[in-house]
Write a structure and sequence with these properties.
The chain has 293 residues and is an alpha/beta fold. It contains ten helices and eight strands. It is globular, with a radius of gyration of 18 Å.
Length: 293
């Protein structure tokens, strides 16, 4: 089956901004190739093949040293493509997996050995059919003992409904793309205010200041409408933010970003060297390469 969204930019630019040594691209994916690692039958979209070799070439071009590879819904709970990339990275990538409650202890141990340090719960309705809370709670019981964290992906309008569940989680919780704010609304308004309150009142929450290309209405090259949201989170919670390219940008239908341009966006949201060191190096190193056992 052909991909039903745009393919990633095959010739991204080399960024003008030079990333600090040890920088981590903390949100990216590998897809397939589908003839080796088939896409999940229950998937809601079929991606372009975007394998590990392309990801590692992009890492080197952009100036990152490491990656966090996040399992996407098109591969379901079959983590083989991601694990294959982790092993091939020789310690330069960590992973976030999708597992089901019946995952065995041996499977979890193998994932840990390969470099997985978290599970992802996706609540975006166009991507998955969400399950009852008990489903996710039974997974958390299994992974918390490994020192893993939970990554959640949801849309801003669903945060109030999920608040009690999210804040009951006993692990660190990382929020993808800052909980997808509607950037046509004010950064000081009630919708984004609820997300900022979550981060403020619950210090176990972290945020990925990623997804400019998918949250923006004004679009490239500046993503000027997303910028104040990202900057607010970086400046308010500098110890609990991560940045990722989101390569290969699944489900974008209007434009594909230049990944070099996304790196050049970083100094605009993290405006001092100290903030950039935390965002790009110290925070992801602590969360993904620290000893959480
Ligand atoms: C992202 C965003 C999207 C897709 C997924 O798991 C996924 O399929 O996360 C999206 O469509 O917004 O971060 O990859």
């Amino acid at each position: 089956m052909d991909a039903d969204w745009l393919c990633f930019d095959p010739n991204p630019s080399k960024p003008a901004y030079r990333l600090p040594p040890g920088s981590v691209d903390a949100h990216c994916h590998v897809f397939g190739p589908g003839d080796v690692f088939p896409y999940a039958p229950e998937r809601k979209y079929t991606p372009c093949d975007a394998g590990k070799d392309r990801l590692f070439a992009l890492r080197d071009l952009l100036g990152f040293e490491r990656n966090v590879i996040v399992q996407a819904t098109c591969h379901g709970a079959d983590n083989r493509a991601m694990v294959d990339a982790l092993v091939a990275s020789e310690g330069r990538a960590r992973g976030v997996a999708t597992v089901r409650p019946d995952v065995s202890g041996d499977e979890l141990a193998e994932l840990h050995e390969a470099g997985v340090r978290g599970v992802r719960f996706n609540f975006v309705r166009r991507l998955v059919d969400p399950k009852p809370d008990a489903y996710y709670e039974s997974i958390v019981e299994r992974i918390a003992v490994l020192g893993w964290h939970v990554v959640v992906y949801f849309e801003a309008q669903d945060l109030a409904e999920r608040w009690a569940f999210f804040t009951s989680l006993p692990t660190t919780v990382v929020v993808d793309h800052m909980g997808r704010p509607d950037v046509r609304k004010p950064v000081d308004g009630p919708e984004f205010g609820l997300f900022l309150r979550l981060m403020d009142e619950h210090p176990q929450f972290w945020a990925k200041v990623s997804g400019a290309e998918r949250l923006s209405v004004s679009g490239p090259p500046g993503y000027d409408d997303v910028l104040p949201f990202h900057r607010r989170v970086v400046e308010t919670f500098p110890e609990r933010v991560l940045f990722g390219t989101d390569w290969p940008h699944p489900n974008l239908k209007d434009h594909m970003p230049d990944d070099g341009g996304l790196v050049d966006y970083v100094p605009r949201i993290a405006t001092t060297g100290e903030l950039r060191q935390k965002l790009l190096v110290d925070n992801p190193t602590r969360l993904y390469w620290g000893d959480h056992r």
